[in-house]
Amino acid sequence: MNPYQAPLAEMKFLLDKVFDAPQTWASLPAIAENVDMDTAVAIMDEADKISRELLHPINRSGDEQGVVHQDDKVITPDGYKEAYTQYAEGGWVGLCGEPEFGGMGMPKMLGVLVDEMAYSACNAFTLYGSLTAGAALCINAHGSDELKQKYLPMMYSGEWSGAMDMTEPQAGSDLRGIRTKAVPLDDGSYSITGSKIFITAGDHDLTENVIHLVLAKLPDSNGISLFLVPKIKVDDSGALGESNHVTVGSIEHKMGLKASSTCVMNYDDAQGYLIGRANRGLVCMFTMMNYERLAIGIQGLGTSQAAYQMAADYAKERVQGVAAGGSPTGATSDPIIVHGDVRRMLLNIRVLTEAGRALSVLTGQQLDIAKYGEGEAQAKASRYVGLLTPVAKAFLSDRGLDAAITAQQVFGGHGYIRETGIEQLVRDTRIAQIYEGTNGIQAIDFLGRKVTGDKVAALTEFVNECTAKLATLSHADAAHKAKVTDLLQQLILVASEINDKKLEKPAVINACAVDFLDAFGHVLYGYFWLLMSDAAVSHADKEFAAQKRYLSDFYINKMLPKAEYHLAQVRAGDETIMNMPESLF
Amino acid sequence: MNPYQAPLAEMKFLLDKVFDAPQTWASLPAIAENVDMDTAVAIMDEADKISRELLHPINRSGDEQGVVHQDDKVITPDGYKEAYTQYAEGGWVGLCGEPEFGGMGMPKMLGVLVDEMAYSACNAFTLYGSLTAGAALCINAHGSDELKQKYLPMMYSGEWSGAMDMTEPQAGSDLRGIRTKAVPLDDGSYSITGSKIFITAGDHDLTENVIHLVLAKLPDSNGISLFLVPKIKVDDSGALGESNHVTVGSIEHKMGLKASSTCVMNYDDAQGYLIGRANRGLVCMFTMMNYERLAIGIQGLGTSQAAYQMAADYAKERVQGVAAGGSPTGATSDPIIVHGDVRRMLLNIRVLTEAGRALSVLTGQQLDIAKYGEGEAQAKASRYVGLLTPVAKAFLSDRGLDAAITAQQVFGGHGYIRETGIEQLVRDTRIAQIYEGTNGIQAIDFLGRKVTGDKVAALTEFVNECTAKLATLSHADAAHKAKVTDLLQQLILVASEINDKKLEKPAVINACAVDFLDAFGHVLYGYFWLLMSDAAVSHADKEFAAQKRYLSDFYINKMLPKAEYHLAQVRAGDETIMNMPESLF
């Protein structure tokens, strides 16, 4: 198996030519002082190197060995601690963190590409740093100055890690039912008691301390509040003190991500600190969850890219059968990439992965503008972040599983064998469709809140901006432009129909949400392909330009029609879904 | 987790009312003397019982423990040997075997339902018996009387098992390259030397002997011949003698099916016996492979049914959130089955599973008529078996994975945990899309050989018979009948277009085959739903009739449009798949 190689040419092209990072960054002073394209390229080159040399080598061994829970300790697989220490020392955990507290202050638009490389190289490893960065983001946004100064430097440096503690056995998608209690103490802190399940990176041996962000209820309140609860207490000097009564009940045995610890966490009179306002914990947690939602989408994207590389390499090496109409080289056997069905599978993965990367970069860009921008530009970017985040989470993770399964099929029988490695991608990425809110929940958030919550205003704004942009493209095929433009407008029409229907038929949002999100994703990818193939025309490498045109044509011809299927599904409504009585299921 | 319960009402309904087994069996004297509906019902009731009580209990423990290769022995998980002995003694291995050699002579139309139950209960266990039955079928069809008398009784009784030894490292989908050699010996037998990989049930501790059907080449021949090679030699009295130099090199570590042994087999001057004519081994092997193809489709179907039951039970029990528009019971939380997206997922699995069972029963019926019938009825059934077998293998196994993944999604985070059991279904059924010829190969066989090989004659005959049958339905919705009828005719049109194009564009078959098979499958399932909902009208249980109508309406409304998508894909041709040079992948 060839080692992982980041698609650096594609990444630089997206940043520089498709989404014009230099112009974006120039408009954001807080970013401009930290990064330009040269710095960004140097960071990507280095991220490629550590992904290949540091992370990928522990991917399969970590899967075989798994995390172990022994004598109240959670032990990660061989090589994880050494790799994490080196990764943290390289500044990768704090890449997009606040410079004031030791972060590198890099834009998310660049961070998403670094995240993708890390997820391609090793899904399980990357979660530890991702949870830490997400927790730090939440503390930075909502925590007191005291909490920020005490915790953020140690988290950005990777010396302490972070975790997000929401789920309880009876409270998963529906957090109203959480029972963990927070009782105020005289010193302004709180006593936290309760249990949480499914806590990714809840405990492990990679860092000295784990900083938990825990949802709990105050006495006599149904509101939910957010608390910072360190595993080990931190004194005023920042030194580690005694245990904070935060213990691991057990670790889960999972389908995949076996090197990522998933813990049952118990708090027994643990000391916690309120983050944000009392009873407003979900709002604060959403800062972290939105970050994690994008990150989990990128987990799917990284998997897609890794799956493509493995399958394409195999298809060029594995010799079996002869091309239809005779071998192009006159050989008695050809590499299987000559076969139409194998090419179809590879092209499917490739076009969805490259367009997925565009979605990731665009979402990163909008996050940067929403965070560092001003005025109407900032407000609009915030709306777009709201719109794009659930799509990035769900559509990228759904495509991640599709990609892994399709790539596995290219390998034939060898794809089912553990040593080949492709089946691990299927098992590792499967959870991305579930955690941080299932993809069904993402779709309901998208259609119910983001699209129809403002009577289709943000969607219309976004779609019209895409339409206007398409009109400026000088190299794209006119029929393709017309097709994507028409589908973009259909999104608005169908969304408006749902918006009109939803009061009378409240079930329609829930029943049709997944199809609407899938329709949106497929149209958006068509838009991205026209952007990319148009921008590639002026690329110095003519083969690169030709390749993007082939891929764009394939996408428009073969994948875009899925958008029409999904739109028709939304229009078909909720009746045949809702009519059958529960007893007949 | 509730124990597995076979869907006996649906199974009996399909046999008795939809495909009129009594009439079919009455027309086949060899079957009629062995079975009537009462016998069939008694067999199904018993199969349900052993599936639940004997097979399902070893499903998860077998996955956890796996097969072990130790001191040249392959050891199955705890409980497998006891279960297999009891299963064999119950006559289940020889259920459809020849009565002359100890089989029970049951029709395949019934056998497919028994197979489905066993696969629902335990994928890995069921393969051992399935391979044995397939090998026995091949020996019965092509072996000498001496071989039949010596081997079949011990195989039908389950005392010896069977295996199919085709693949070598350099020869998978393309068997031309096999290197295993067969040298004629003076006594008319052959000396077999070589290695095979991926041999399901190649060795294990369930039976005293394993009867291998091995593909090998005679000296100075490029033709492929088929040989019966026992693991342990059998003397003229039928007693076991010395080792036949058939050894296990290693066992594979796989994504799933961990309780099924997958072996590297080595033959070192092993004694083998020619089956069928020299250099005509593939023709003989196809008898077994066609049997196994249907069986593997049924593996997917059984998985779908098990996945549905688990997910539906969970959705009725798990309480989370409130129904859109308010709880129907006024509760503060409802079971998740109230949510449209959860219902959508369950309905998806259910309609594909019930229509899949119809495909399985129809294919079984045609196999019976092809084997036991006469004249034109027999010839037509043979054509239909050719047409339906690749579809049953590919479409049922593809839907099996979809069902398992969708059901896993219903479980949310719990679906990713091994203890829940649903993730095992995903891992176990994934291989069904690959082995016995990948689903891409099935599709190419379907479109290239079965559909366009006779210039669309068999497809046209089959489709017109479906169309005529639809016209006789008195209870089905007229618009639904018109829709399915139109799509059936479109299948002929699109197939004819491909047939016209294929000489000029030989790549079109390979590139468009999967979409054509998927289009055919989705249209066929629409036809089945109209048949089923129509037949259910006269069912004694009015809720059963109502349920079939709800499901039929859902299928036509929500799933049938996929057929149009896939047909459009076929019409979009192969250009965007074939144009991009290999170097740009």
From TrEMBL, chains A, B:
GO function terms (MF aspect): flavin adenine dinucleotide binding; oxidoreductase activity, acting on the CH-CH group of donors
Cofactor: FAD
Keyword annotations from UniProtKB, A to Z: FAD, Flavoprotein, Oxidoreductase
Domain Acyl-CoA dehydrogenase/oxidase N-terminal: 81-159
Acyl-CoA oxidase/dehydrogenase middle domain ranges (all copies): 163-269
EC number: 1.3.99.41
Entry keyword Ribonucleoprotein: no
Record domain Acetyl-CoA dehydrogenase-like C-terminal: where: 476-581
Classification via Gene3D superfamilies: Acyl-CoA dehydrogenase/oxidase, N-terminal domain, Butyryl-CoA Dehydrogenase, subunit A, domain 2, Butyryl-CoA Dehydrogenase, subunit A, domain 3
Residue span(s) of domain Acyl-CoA dehydrogenase/oxidase C-terminal: 279-443
Pfam families per UniProt: Acyl-CoA_dh_1, Acyl-CoA_dh_C, Acyl-CoA_dh_M, Acyl-CoA_dh_N
SUPFAM superfamilies per the UniProt record, alphabetical: Acyl-CoA dehydrogenase C-terminal domain-like, Acyl-CoA dehydrogenase NM domain-like
InterPro entries named in the record: Acyl-CoA_dh-like_C_dom (IPR025878), Acyl-CoA_Oxase/DH_mid-dom (IPR006091), Acyl-CoA_Oxase/DH_mid-dom_sf (IPR046373), AcylCo_DH-like_C (IPR036250), AcylCo_DH/oxidase_C (IPR009075), AcylCoA_DH/ox_N (IPR013786), AcylCoA_DH/ox_N_sf (IPR037069), AcylCoA_DH/oxidase_NM_dom_sf (IPR009100)
TM spans (from-to): none
Reaction equations catalysed: 3-(methylsulfanyl)propanoyl-CoA + oxidized [electron-transfer flavoprotein] + H(+) = 3-(methylsulfanyl)acryloyl-CoA + reduced [electron-transfer flavoprotein]
Biological role: Involved in the assimilation of dimethylsulphoniopropionate (DMSP), an important compound in the fixation of carbon in marine phytoplankton, by mediating the conversion of 3-(methylthio)propanoyl-CoA (MMPA-CoA) to 3-(methylthio)acryloyl-CoA (MTA-CoA).
Record-stated family: Belongs to the acyl-CoA dehydrogenase family.
Entry protein name: 3-methylmercaptopropionyl-CoA dehydrogenase
Organism of this sequence: Shewanella benthica KT99
